[in-house]
Amino acid sequence: MSYQALARKWRPKNFSELAGQQHVVQALTNALTQNRLHHAYLLTGTRGVGKTTIARILAKSLNCERGVTAAPCGVCAPCVAIDEGRFVDLIELDAASNTGIDNMREILDTARYAPTVGRYKVYLIDEVHMLSRSAFNSMLKTLEEPPEHVKFVLATTDPQKIPITVLSRCLQFNLKQLPPPIVARQLEHVLTQEGIGFEPGAIRVLARAAQGSMRDGLSLLDQAIAYGSGGVEEAVVRQMLGAVETDYVLRLLEALAESDGERLFGEARAMAERNLAFDAALQDLAVCLHDIALLQTVPGAIPDDQPGRDRLVELARRLDPETVQLDYQIAVQGRNDLSIAPDEFAGFSMTLLRMLAFAPGGRPAIAVGSGPVVAAATTSARAATRPVTAAVPVALDASIAPPAATTATEAGPAGSPIAAGAPVAAGRGTGAGRRRACACRLTPVRRCSPAPRHRMPHSIPCRSSPPWRLASGRA
Ligand SMILES: Nc1ncnc2c1ncn2[C@@H]1O[C@H](COP(=O)(O)OP(=O)(O)O)[C@@H](O)[C@H]1O
Ligand SMILES: [Mg+2]
Ligand SMILES: [Zn+2]
User: Fold this and answer.
1) How many domains are there within the chain?
2) Which ligand is closest to the CA of 66, given by its number?
3) Same domain, 208 and 279
4) Tens of pLDDT along 236-281?
5) What CATH number did the domain enclosing 193 receive?
6) What percent of the chain has pLDDT above 70?
7) Could you give the angle at which helices 22-33 and 51-63 cross, rounded to 10 degrees?
8) Which stretch of DSSP H or E encloses residue 345?
9) Closest ligand 1 atom, residue 182 Cα
10) Tell me: the pLDDT tens digits for 442-458?
11) Residue 252 and residue 224 in one domain
């Protein structure tokens, strides 16, 4: 038999094989067992989360020779025909290529006739949002009151584009994106059944790259099997995806924790030399920051055998939770901005520099470490453990730092961590911030009144910092 793509070969044949989407399975199972089936369903969700799969299982449930059931037998003639895609009473229409009213009329005309071999005629209209307005209108009547023997299943990735008149005639189910652990489990299942060896790390990387879509996950797995020789190895998968080794990401975070701009930039350049994908790097950075945030609040959520866990724990101890939150936000946003950046490297390094420049409590690498691992600390407790000097940028030359910045009273109201040294908050309205040094940790080029003015290493003035605005006379 010719080779069949894994995604097709492993399409679930009944509800119990389906990964995730329990809410839909439960509702349909109840409806089927109680014989209270609606005549029109709308399944929404991104690509490859099970819309077509569920529609086909439903068609089998309705037409199985053993009677209407939530567990179709899979061996009778209708079940087999549906699995093989040649059941005459399952009419699949791709609305993306049949958008017009004529196509719709043709289909609806046939709806009047009884099913040829099955119990029900099931109309599966995929990408239904692509239908023209007139096509939608022509189906309204049939959709509202179809003949007894007709069921509609509409599927779409873009429910916003569906007229409200159609929505109100359907029972809507929103399929969820599949989280990486569920995708990973399915990939492992498929590999085990196929008798192909794999490294758990490889599955983790693939499952994350699938971005919530099981089809994407299985397609990537297909690719990884072809790319490697026999087994599925982590190094090979990373190379295939242009994915960045966790080691790189951890080194970036460690440089950030130490506010070491030079090392940070060096790491970024090394990544560029190795042609690593910056988009993936930012994604991995966000994943690591998420892990760090988890370690700070729910340490048990990160398994002991996760690669690099020790270093993550150390980072969780050194970075304060607000910084982690902010860096996460910057990483996610930076990924968004990559497409409009002058070039990928500029976008990536700029994102890293932004992390360096902004830090709610400064980047008191040494200071925070002296306290408890900030895990489970309350906001006020965190604010209290942060040393007052946090308001002063670590890299700031002490000789030109204004002395005013270091007193406790200057650090803003107690328990408002953001106000302490945050570049954005400082100087906004309240007089307190105006006297403070710029919180970006870049080299001050000259002392000006009332605060020093800074320049980025490549001589772009630091716009984020209110003192700069003061200095330039625009405040
Ligand atoms: N929930 C799921 N559980 C297991 N496999 C799934 C699931 N969703 C999708 N798949 C896999 O992805 C493939 C495509 O799924 P499909 O239902 O056609 O996606 P779509 O939502 O785009 O219609 C299936 O053949 C199956 O291998
Ligand atoms: Mg589909
Ligand atoms: Zn059957």
Assistant:
1) 3
2) 3
3) no
4) 898 888 767 778 899 999 999 999 999 999 999 998 988 888 998 9
5) 1.10.8.60
6) 75
7) 10
8) helix 344-357
9) 3
10) 444 333 334 444 443 43
11) no
Residue 323 banded pLDDT, cuts 50, 70, 90: very high
pTM, entire model: 0.67
Answer yes or no: do 35 and 148 share one domain: yes
What confidence score (pLDDT) does residue 358 get?
Answer: 85
Residue 441 forms part of a structural domain = no
Give me the chain's average pLDDT, please: 79
State whether the beta carbon of 364 lies less than 6 angstroms from ligand 1: no
> What CATH code is carried by the domain that includes residue 347?
1.20.272.10
Regarding whether 75 and 36 lie in a shared domain, the answer is yes
| Helix ranges restricted to H, 303-357 | 309-318, 321-337, 344-357
- End of a domain among 338, 357, 376? 357
Which atom of ligand 1 lies nearest, measured to the CA of 43? 21
Task: Return the exposure string of 410-419: e unless at least 16 CB atoms fall within 10 Å of the residue's CB, then b.
Answer: bbbeeeebeb
Which of 111, 128, 119, 106 shows the shortest CA–CA distance to 52? 128
Same domain for 116 and 216, yes or no, is: no
Looking at 226, 241, 256, the residue that finishes a domain is: 241
3-state DSSP call for residue 92? strand
68 located within any domain: yes
Digit-coded pLDDT (tens) for 124-157: 999 999 999 999 999 898 999 999 999 999 999 9
Position 376 scores a pLDDT of 35
Only one residue has tokens 């492993």, namely 10
Q: Is residue 414 part of a domain?
A: no
Residue 15 is given by DSSP the state G
20 and 67 together in one domain: yes
CATH number at residue 12: 3.40.50.300
Each residue's pLDDT tens digit, 174-211: 999 999 999 999 999 999 999 999 999 899 989 988 98
Is residue 35 one of the residues assigned to a domain? yes
User: In the 8-state DSSP scheme, what is residue 10?
Assistant: T
Q: What's the 74 CA to ligand 3 centre distance in angstroms?
A: 5
* pLDDT score, position 361: 55
Testing ligand 1's pocket by substitution, the residue of 214, 218, 221 carrying the most ligand atoms inside 8 A of its CB is 214
In one-letter notation, the amino acid at residue 226 is A
pLDDT at 221 over 90: yes
d(CA 276, CA 194): 31
Rg (CA), the chain: 29
* Residue-range definition of the domain harbouring residue 251: 246-357
Q: Is 118 in the pocket of ligand 1 (CB under 6 A)?
A: no
* The dihedral formed by the CA atoms of 27, 33, 35 and 41, expressed in degrees to the nearest 10: 30
409 by DSSP, 3-state: which?
Answer: helix
Q: Give residue 80 CA to ligand 1 midpoint distance, Å.
A: 18
